[in-house]
Amino acid sequence: MLSPNISRDLTDCSEFGNRSCPESFRSAAVQGIMYLFITAAFTLTILGNLAIIVSISYFKRLHSPTNFLILSMAVTDFLMGFAIMPYSMMRSVENCWYFGMTFCKVHYSFDLMLCLASIFHLCSIAVDRFYAICHPLHYATTMTVTVIKQIIAVCWSVPTAFAFAVVFSEAYASGIEDYEMLVKCSNLCPIVFNKLWGAVLFIVGLFAPACVMIGIYVKIFTVSQRHTCELSQVHRHSKSDKKDELSKNKDRKAAKTLSIVMLGFLICWFPCFFTILIDPFLNFSTPLPLFDALNWLGYLNSLCNPLIYGFFYPWFRKTFKYILKGKIFSPYFRMIKLLSED
User: Fold this and answer.
1) What is the pLDDT at residue 9?
2) C or N terminus of the chain, fewer CB within 10 Å?
3) Quick check: helix, strand or coil at residue 300?
4) Short-list 57, 96, 6, CA closest to 319
5) How far apart are CA 162 and CA 114, in angstroms?
6) Is residue 341, in this structure, part of any structural domain at all?
7) Total domains, the chain
8) Contact partners, residue 302, CB within 8 Å, separation at least 6
9) Does residue 272 fall inside a structural domain?
10) How many other CB atoms sit within 10 Å of the CB of residue 229?
11) Separation between Cα atoms, residue 13 and residue 4, nearest integer Å
12) CATH number reported for the structural domain that contains residue 119 in this entry
């Protein structure tokens, strides 16, 4: 979600020429290094999230409400790496947009949509974990497969409608001085947010969902801590008690892992969202290289999620090995036991 510096006075197209780009300030060596590292980043993003998609889709043992939400979120990260990052790479390295203004809007709409879809999924996962840990007796009847499908549909449809409506209506640019001249003169794909829509995007897309998630996870960890204290006071457990304790420990571990995923999202995307919020009040004076760097910090979140899953989830490490060995081509592996507690 890039926002260029447009504070300069544009009274004609002499600065940019006729639909031309500013001269690149990077040497060929620097551009080559940038292409190398960014290509590696989005390649790993694609492969890592594809592994999650294949794992949860293929193995029957992983077909659970939480994992379906993780699967859907992995699709957003996969699309970010496959459909967004390569074009953004060319824009960042070449300091130019070669694909026309119509595709610029399409690209920016999908960029914004996938970012918002990710945080909607994180909110949904937080709600799912809340019911699993805080209301375990009602979880099976509340978070059914049908409900999960409806939640996933909302996680995709609402960000899609918001992103495409805002970008193609150009409401985000209303009142921004010299915006039309910049679009007419340059090939920079200069999509920015005015004060109103910058604030709306920050509140609706980040601040409000973050507050909801933080509140839910605080409640989850409070309840988990209370359960731990209660279990520690019991010296003798029946077999069913031990199974219940194992299930609760598994839920707490899942909540802890997903809270780290949420924290990673906030660390990666908050600087970009915050800059979009304050930049209109600073007369769009934020340097373009800084905006570009913050944008790529947000993109890297799509790479971080598979790494987090691989570090904390034994099932992902095991299924990843099966994928690399090609064992998933055998139909018998669909029902294989992945964890000792299965």
Assistant:
1) 44
2) C
3) coil
4) 57
5) 11
6) no
7) 1
8) 45, 49, 76, 77, 78, 80, 81, 85, 118
9) yes
10) 9
11) 17
12) 1.20.1070.10
pTM for the full predicted model:
0.86
Label residue 90 exposed, middle or buried (CB < 10 Å: 0-12, 13-18, 19+).
Answer: middle
> Is the Cα dihedral 14, 15, 17, 23 positive or negative?
positive
* Cβ-based neighbours of 138, under 8 Å, separated by 6 or more: 131
Residues 210 and 87: their CA atoms lie apart, in Å, by: 29
**pLDDT tens-digit series, residues 46-77:** 999 999 999 999 988 888 898 999 999 999 99
Range of the domain at 244: 28-335
The C-alpha atoms of residue 127 and residue 108 are separated, in whole angstroms, by 29
18 located within any domain: no
Gap between the Cα atoms of 173 and 191, Å rounded: 8
Query: Please, which residues have CB within 8 angstroms of residue 3's CB and are 6 or more apart in sequence?
Result: 191, 192, 193, 275, 276, 279, 284, 286, 291
Six token digits for residue 169: 């209506």
Cross-strand pairs, 225: none
- Looking at the DSSP bridge assignments, the partners of residue 20 are 186
Residue 13 lies in a domain: no
Q: What is the pLDDT of residues 25-42, one digit of tens each?
A: 778 899 999 999 999 999
Separation between Cα atoms, residue 164 and residue 113, nearest integer Å: 8
186: which strand partners? 20
